[in-house]
Fold each of these.
Amino acid sequence: MPDVDDLKEAKNYAADIPQKSQAFFLKGSGSLDWGMQNRLARIFSPESGRTVMLAIDHGYFQGPTTGLERVDLTILPLVPYADTLMLTRGILRTIIPSATPKSIVLRVSGGTSILKELSDEGLAVDIEESIRLNVCAMAVQVFIGGEHERESILNMTNMVNLGTRYGIPTLAVTAVGKDMVRDARYFRLAARICAELGAHYIKTYYVEKGFETVCASCPVPIVMAGGKKMPELEALTMAFRAVQEGAAGVDMGRNIFQSDAPTAMVQAVRAVVHKNESPAKAFDLYQSLKNQGKR
Ligand code: R5P
């Protein structure tokens, strides 16, 4: 029984100090519930407003991708330098220590392989699984203009509906088919459709011309996809431009884990994203960490 005999009368009401309300730092996310905001604040740094997501979910449609043959050996050393891991439940359960302090973005769409039409996806993970795994967001591929455009959009909206019940955000990943034009006009269309239909943040590729219009016309944060491997300086330059032009960070895979020195590269990307480091200085950092033997 609580000790109620000698209760002191509370008197420290500070009635002259109004309680402060803090605006949530992330674009378009101010009206979300506490749990949603808390999860987003574990993906995006409240200090910089940005994120370095490490995408290692490639296996869900293309099997053991170069650099991901042994996630335990090649990816675990990179984890301390990422804000978030984007991956499948299979790799999460089998390889990633459950004591990790890192936030998890779970790939929840799937059902196709590189041997067939990639846009023919469904939802491959229950909402209960995302709750059990304590994830901070769920990632769904959206194929605007693709063969299965409608189904992929509805996969995303279904996940938004389910996630909203439990306070879990949905990341819409805009996927570009082989024959489709990758330009600002396309990504404005794709990102805006996803945001209008409820996605909490959007992943798109970078485009040289007009990327700032993609970010400006999207009411929620955009993270830049990495794409195929390119020389480190080019990848750092692309990441730099993306964040300077309005992206709230990056979701990069191959340009980190297929680098000659992945541990050095992820730290260089971090400097660009969180410290606004110039591509040249970030590349110097990459070189010097690489020369110190930090692969
Ligand atoms: C998109 O299709 C998937 O999430 C990919 O597995 C991931 O985005 C690829 O990352 P990156 O293009 O940077 O290797």
Amino acid sequence: MGLRHDVPPIQLPSRADGWEGMSLERTLVLIKPDGVQRGLVGELVGRFERRGLHLVGLKLTSVSRELAERHYGEHRGRPFFDAVIEFITSSPVVAMVWEGPNSVSMVRSMMGPTNPAAAPSGTIRGDFGVDIGQNVVHGSDSPSRAEQEIALFFDLAELVSWEREGGRWVYP
Ligand code: IDP
Ligand code: MG
């Protein structure tokens, strides 16, 4: 697709004990228009922060039709395609990049399944959603998709490499 960033190498923490089989990843998270309109931005950012994930990009933005169609391109032709494009372009979203060990699957498990009606309490969709179309958040579904989606939503210069004070209490 030609959309990948030339992603700078991610610095592994100095002590990587216990990280066997884990990879440090970045994932794209969107707080969808329903989440922003309902005033859930602080709550949702807080959940990822408290989990210990590391924030490297964050902005409030409107999604153009072109961006929406690229982002949801895999669903073109499916019955809900027009509705999902309509919805994601209807009102601003908050786009974020979260970094951490296996952050792609970690965020997916924090979000819960696509249909909030089937999402367990404790997950974002299980705590805040009832409708499959308005399911509050998006999270990349694989590390390779994450790279593509991050490049769709962020310029490289918008991603910030920084070290969190006290980070060793999260990543030993
Ligand atoms: P995901 O967001 O959990 O990765 P996907 O299958 O990638 O789920 O679908 C993308 C988005 O399209 C969903 O989050 C949801 O908003 C919408 N969507 C998926 N399936 C349906 C459906 O059957 N009806 C209406 N909307 C759907
Ligand atoms: Mg998906």
